[in-house]
Write a structure and sequence with these properties.
The chain is mostly helical. Helices cover 50% and strands 5% of the residues. It contains 13 helices and 8 strands. A hairpin with a 2-residue loop joins strand 5 and strand 6. It is globular, with a radius of gyration of 19 Å.
């Protein structure tokens, strides 16, 4: 399979995984992931916009707007001082029809909505569209939600560590609120500055960003503080030190782990994170390194052109692999977010013909 063939297959995998309602399934073959996550889908929609598949992205954003506006009453009640449980206001994932899941889940994840606001802004720009009334209404509801809760500990993007303030989460809120201001005309700059100050003051150790406040360890999601959140430019000294630390601690056999203590499916190496590194390298001017990463991903695609969530290679703790296989089945494949990040890297490299 060539680079271009995997690019085209990735678009097909995403199209096949989009429900008629507009929601993107996280993975069609892995029952636990038969939901649409705001976080995954925001990146997927952006990838589709880059690939000029604007209708697909628009249908997802319409799905998102419907789900947000359906919860407007609870949000307004909370904003006005009502007793609504803030952790239940907006869930990170919904069924493809837009319903909340019936089982217990780690749903309070602020990063999902910060990154959605960024994806909306990119969609409007790339598709040369204008925001209509419902979209602006949803954007402002989400922005007010993030403004109210940005300092609140929540689950990270891996749905762990509920009691921490995560630097990737803060980065998404920073960029999301900037985008919300641009979309709606409402000024969120006071919160934007406060978030940036907190990242600079408590989100760094030894010159690099940290996984969450109070520790020194890194997490590969911190790549998001470069692209797409641009808290710092990708070649800024803080991002340079962060990327170097991520590579030193988490790069193995050509791919990135989430974090060093990860044991999910043994804690293997993740396709989407490795692509994320490549995207940052493109923006840092390291074209050759980014192309090497693209080809590494290409080498990991199955004969059907499917990209998994993670690979059972260089696992942090292989003893956990059987536990997860027995609990949920084999690791998710294809993962639409993995395909989206391949598309983004491919497009950023300027390989489209």
């Amino acid at each position: 399979m060539t680079r271009e063939q995997l690019f085209k297959q990735s678009i097909k995998v995403i199209k096949d995984g989009q429900h008629p309602t507009g929601g993107y399934v996280a993975c069609p073959t892995f029952p636990t992931y038969n939901y649409s996550w705001f976080r995954d889908s925001a990146y997927i929609a952006y990838a589709m916009d880059l690939a000029s598949e604007h209708d697909s992205a628009a249908r997802f954003h319409s799905w998102a707007v419907r789900n947000i506006l359906a919860r407007e009453k609870a949000l307004e009640e909370y904003f006005s001082g009502g007793a609504t449980d803030y952790k239940e206001l907006l869930h990170t994932r919904y069924t493809l029809e837009g319903d909340e899941g019936t089982e217990e889940w780690e749903n309070f994840q602020l990063d999902s909505f910060g990154i959605w606001l960024w994806s909306v802004k990119e969609h409007l720009s790339l598709s040369e569209s204008k925001a209509d009334g419902p979209l602006i209404q949803a954007v402002n509801l989400v922005a007010r939600y993030l403004t109210a809760l940005w300092q609140t500990p929540c689950y990270d993007c891996w749905e762990e560590n509920e009691d921490k303030v995560h630097i990737y989460t803060l980065a998404t809120i920073y960029r999301g609120l900037i985008c919300a201001s641009e979309i709606s005309g409402t000024d969120y700059s006071k919160t934007v500055l406060a978030v940036k100050n907190r990242i600079e003051k408590s989100g760094c150790a030894e010159g690099h960003l940290v996984k969450y406040e109070g520790i020194r360890a890194v997490d590969s999601s911190l790549l998001g503080a470069g692209f797409p959140c641009f808290v710092f430019d990708p070649d800024h000294p803080v991002m340079d030190a962060t990327i170097k630390q991520i590579e030193a601690d988490l790069l193995e056999s050509g791919g990135l782990h989430r974090y060093r203590a990860d044991t999910y499916y043994g804690g293997g190496i993740w396709i989407l994170l490795t692509a994320w590194l490549g995207i940052n390298e493109v923006l840092r001017g390291n074209q050759d390194k980014a192309e090497h990463i693209l080809d590494w991903i290409l080498s990991k695609a199955g004969e059907d052109g499917h990209l998994p969530e993670q690979l059972s290679e260089a696992m942090n703790d292989p003893s956990y692999l059987s536990h997860w296989n027995e609990k949920w089945g084999f690791s998710a494949n294809p993962l639409l977010w993995s395909h989206a990040m391949y598309i983004i890297l491919y497009m950023k490299l300027g390989l489209i013909k």
